[in-house]
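ugh ok fine here u go
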Amino acid sequence: MAQIKSWTVSDELWAKVEPLIPRKERVADRKYQRRPGAGRKPMAARQVFSAIVYVLRTGMQWKALPRAFGSASAVHQYFQDWQEAGFFLKLWQAGLAEYDGMQGIAWEWQSIDGAMSKAPLATECVGPNPTDRGKKGTQAKLVGRRPWRPAIARRQRGQRA
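structure:
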């Protein structure tokens, strides 16, 4: 049985993605000289997109990208250039519009909650932080008992003997 690879880019997906990919524009006043055999040729856009999907789908680091996809640093540079050009935003918007056309999104039921704070009442139930147990100033006093003192009285600095 063939293994399902969730990072592969199908021809159907590529047909939808290809028109959104930003093209590098050449500066009109600049004279480009590329000697035969010099420099690295640009990667194919589909290969770059496949590599980006692979990295994002697997969650791996850019430097761990298999050599079959091409140079990891070149793919990462394309990723940064495309992100700066707004490619991923356009791709997300196109996918959202397509899904809205197929299934219909109930926009009136959408909400976003970005509140990130500590629960103010949780400290009473939980008690002191376990990492503070060894610190002298944060130790809780025992309720209903006298404070602990050493059995032998010692003089403090500055006291006379």
